[in-house]
Design goal:
299 residues, nine-stranded mixed beta sheet, 7 helices, 16 strands, globular, binds zinc ion
């Protein structure tokens, strides 16, 4: 697809990573979605156009790279990094459910001594340390290689609740607590006057806007949001810790945010089902997009 312009006051450029001719190093803030599927990977002809790989996004602020979540979308991102010269980045995990960490054991840069990585996560119930999250994934009988065998220079970092992390080069990362079984952390990246937030996985109370989240999202240019369900499906799944397309739009309006990129598509949502949602959005929610694997935005 070519360049699109969306949002009333804010310009957001949508492009497709695969068809894109430039490197993504625009000097501003760009986001590439490498995995948009929630819960588990999907395969087959019914899932060719939207998301097959689980949650992973790459944010570029100038030449700095921030990776959000490490689902199976992390694996092709690793190959891209080897090719484009990226050797240093920060990886922020929302939480440790499989669809957000399963790319870690298979991520090539971790086995390459040229890479330097900070891995960050917030306070989760049960698992308190970022190192423990990676340790739990990398042990027998689940996986034959321990994380001690990683060749990259990896630093594990733990985030306090509601932190403001100065990454240097004018990049600030703010965090908030989300509402999800076991806990999850939401992130907002501020860079050169641009703001992008990453809010997954989280649920909401029907008819009650999450005032803390509204504050956190105030005036962001764009945010990715847990759009697992539609409002009419929500009562059936309200205890699962996920949210809806309509809630994303309510939050966007309440926070005066620019645009929503819906992610965490459920496995029962094939291309045809996501096309239907996309068509509905064009009519009712002009500032929302059904995000696809490979989609890139520039703020
Ligand atoms: Zn998830
Ligand atoms: Zn989860």
């Amino acid at each position: 697809m070519g360049h699109h312009r969306c949002g009333r006051q804010r310009k957001i450029w949508l492009t497709d990573y695969m068809n894109s001719t430039h490197s993504g190093e625009t000097g501003g803030l760009s986001v590439t979605f490498w995995g948009t599927r929630g819960t588990r990977m999907v395969t087959g002809d019914a899932f060719m156009r939207y998301g097959r790989k689980t949650i992973c996004a790459e944010v570029r602020c100038g030449d700095r790279v921030i990776v959000l979540d490490a689902g199976s979308g992390l694996v092709p991102l690793g190959s891209a990094m080897k090719g484009n010269g990226t050797r240093q980045f920060d990886l922020f995990l929302t939480h440790a459910h499989y669809d957000h960490v399963e790319g870690i054991p298979f991520f090539e840069p971790f086995y390459d001594p040229q890479f330097k990585v900070n891995i960050w996560s917030g306070k989760l119930k049960g698992i308190q340390k970022t190192r423990d999250i990676v340790d739990g994934l990398m042990k027998e009988p689940y996986f034959p290689i321990r994380q001690e065998k990683f060749l990259a220079d990896i630093r594990y970092r733990d985030i306090e609740d509601h932190a403001a992390i100065n990454l240097g080069d004018g990049i600030m990362v703010h965090t908030t607590r989300l509402h999800h079984p076991g806990g999850a952390t939401g992130y907002r990246i501020d860079y050169k006057g641009k703001r992008f937030a990453f809010i997954t996985d989280t649920t909401h109370a029907t008819g009650q806007c999450d005032t803390e989240l509204v504050k956190f999202l105030r005036d962001v240019d764009a945010f990715a949001y847990d759009c697992s369900y539609l409002d009419r499906e929500f009562p059936k799944f309200s205890s699962f810790g996920h949210s809806t397309w309509e809630e994303a739009e309510r939050l966007r309006k309440a926070a005066n945010a620019g645009h929503v990129f819906g992610i965490h598509h459920m496995p029962f949502r094939d291309d045809a089902a996501l096309d239907t949602i996309s068509a509905q959005i064009v009519k009712d929610m002009a500032h929302c997009t059904v995000t696809r694997d490979g989609m890139r935005i520039e703020l």
